[in-house]
Every structure is written in structure tokens, then in C-alpha cells.
Amino acid sequence: MTKAVENIQVDAVITWVNGNDKNWQEKINTYSESKINFSSKNHLKRYNSIGEIDIAIKSIIKFAPFIKNIFVVADNQSPESFTSLKSLARKKGVNLELVDHKVIFRGFEEYLPVFNSCSIETMLFRIPNLSEHFIILNDDTFIMKEASLDDFFIDGEPIIRGEWQLFNENKTLRKSYRKVLTFLNISKKKDKISFKKLQQNSAKLALMEKYVRRFHTPVSVRKSTLTNFFKEDTLLRKNIQHRFKSQDQYLISSLSEHLEIKNNTYYYQKDSQLTYFRSYKNLWLTKLKLKWYKKDQRKLFVTFQSLDMANDKILDYILNWIEKQLSKN
Predict the structure, then answer these.
(1) Domain residue extents for the chain
(2) Which residues, other chains included, contact 34 with Cβ-Cβ below 8 Å and sequence gap of 6+?
(3) According to DSSP H, which parts of the chain are helical?
(4) I need a labelling partner for 91 at 20 to 30 A (CA). Which of 16, 207, 246, 261 fits?
């Protein structure tokens, strides 16, 4: 790989919501067509949090020392430990800031409140004082090994991780499946909203003929790529008008990547460098995956999706593992 451009400033942006906040729960139920039972397992999985934001911030401070600003975007909320996190960041020369939805939606207040990550992320490039180069992370994705600038940008251009794939409608198996349904006169159920579908929408918006399927990794973005694309705000408004997620939306992270691909201003890496958890059924499997993560020097990221759904034994093991990673010299 080419040596990275030195002295470019890179910021990190994390979107976060405290789903345990009673005020927020009341707010979302005011606007939701079907009221959410926050005590049910299905909704706990989607909205519950067990301090992942603290881990995400600490992991950036420890393992990505080139990051100068960390922006946490939230809806009139603040992590309980934000004061101590801000102090820790300051000691390491990092500026940690909270950014409210009202700030990034300034001039577009009619679309607030919003409970849709696609809509919220569309506006991240409007964070005041955000650097040209920034990284978008989910609060359940952690950098758990020493990372450098050229793991995200090379010569000022973003690294794009993922796998090239055809759009669903262009896949031979999908076409055959649709023909069989037509022959049998069976109506196909409406596609559910999926991460994969939203990525395909994004690539099509960038006029691509296929797309890079990204997994749950941080995304490297150039602010100017988005400000140039949204000089006229029709497409911006079209995406942020959805208070709740819609299959017609696009992902700003994926759109940004495909605009860079279209302009040939990117570096491609097929390896996601990710260890991904979305189920926690077996302690032995959890231990094995974490062991291989530490052993494989290529891997940088760990995503613990719905970590609160792990049983106490597995959760304790994972949290202890994370603590050891963050505290080691």
C-alpha cells in the first residue's frame, strides 16, 4: 500500500441512543403507529444498551490515537459517564463532544424528532467543525487493536472494505425464484428492510451497476464528497423525511463509498478485518472467536450486535475480555 498522507486530521462520529431512557421511550411511542412494549425481548434487543458507547469511545482513544475529535450524536441525551470520558479523552489530546440532533438538522427541523438511523446518519456531514476526513462508527463496533491513519485513508482517499456483489434483481437464482413464483401464481412477500437492501439503494443512487456489500465495519468518509452531492437538497430531504426506517431509503455511508468508487477516488480492501457477533449461544464459541481475533493480526474491529441478549456468563466473559484489551499497556 502507498504511504498515507501525513498530518491530515481525522475525526470519529458515533450515533447513539439510550433506549433505556423513559423520556425517549415516551417520545418514540408518541410517534409510532404501533406502541412499543419496551419490556418484551424483541424490543429489548433493538433498543437496550449496556454501556457500549463507553467501550466505543475508550477503544478509539486507546487504539486510534490519530483521531483528534470524537463526536457523539444523540437526541437530547448524554451517556452517564460522559464527564469522565471527556476527561479521559482530554488527557490523551482528544476532544470529545456531544452533538444534538437539533444541531445537524438545523434548517430541516420539520423532520424532527426522528428515530431512524438512516435519516440521522444522512445529516452527520453537517456537524459543525467536522474535519474533511472522518470515520462513522456504530456504538457496538469497537477498534480493539492498534490502528493507524492508513487503515482508513491512503493519500487522503478512503479505504472501502467489502465484497463486490450483483444487485438482487440481477442474480440468476433470484430471477429463477421469481419465475417459479409467477408460474405458481404465488405473490412474493414485500421485501423486509435490510442492511443489504439499503446498501443496494445507495449504490443505485450513485449510478452503479453492482455494489460493494459492506459489513459492520467503520466507514471512512470525505465531507466534500457529500457536500458536493447535496448542493441541491431534494435527495437529502427525500431520505430524512422518514421518521422511521423505510426500504426506500439509502445509507449515507454506503452512498459516500459508491460516489468515491464512481470517481475512482478510493482504495479497495476485500478483507473486512472484522470479527462479528450477533448471537451468543455458546461460551466455547465466543471464546474461540475472540481467541482467533487476537491471533489474526489482520483483524482490527469487533462488532457485538445486541450484546445485552447474551446470558450472564457469556456477557461477563466478553466484558472482562474487553476490559483487558482496554487496560493493557
Answers:
(1) 10-327
(2) none
(3) 22-31, 41-47, 52-63, 82-91, 101-104, 117-122, 172-183, 195-205, 223-229, 234-240, 252-262, 283-295, 312-327
(4) 16
Are 100 and 17 in contact by the 8 Å Cβ rule? The answer is no
Q: What sections of 143-222 are H helices per DSSP?
A: 172-183, 195-205
Contact 135, 300 (CB under 8 A): no
How many residues are present in the chain?
A: 329
Using alpha carbons only, give the angle 164, 165, 168 rounded to the nearest 5 degrees.
160
CATH number of 10-327: 3.90.550
Candidates 75, 119, 109; CA nearest to 235 is 119
**Is pLDDT of 164 > 60?**
yes
CB 199 within 8 A of CB 234: no
Reply yes or no: is the peptide bond before residue 158 cis, omega within 30 of 0. Answer: no
Which amino acid would we find at residue 67?
I
Among residues 164, 249, 253, which one has the least CA distance to residue 209?
164
pLDDT at 2 > cutoff 60: no
Report the 10 Å Cβ neighbour count for 258: 25
CB atoms within 10 A of CB 205: 18
Grid cell digits, residue 308: 445485552
User: 102: helix, coil or strand?
Assistant: helix
Cβ partners under 8 Å of residue 170, min gap 6 = 210
- Cell 463509498: give the residue: 257
pLDDT in tens, 236-293: 999 999 999 999 999 999 999 999 999 999 999 999 999 999 989 999 999 999 999 9
Give helix 283-295 / helix 312-327 axis angle, nearest 10°: 20
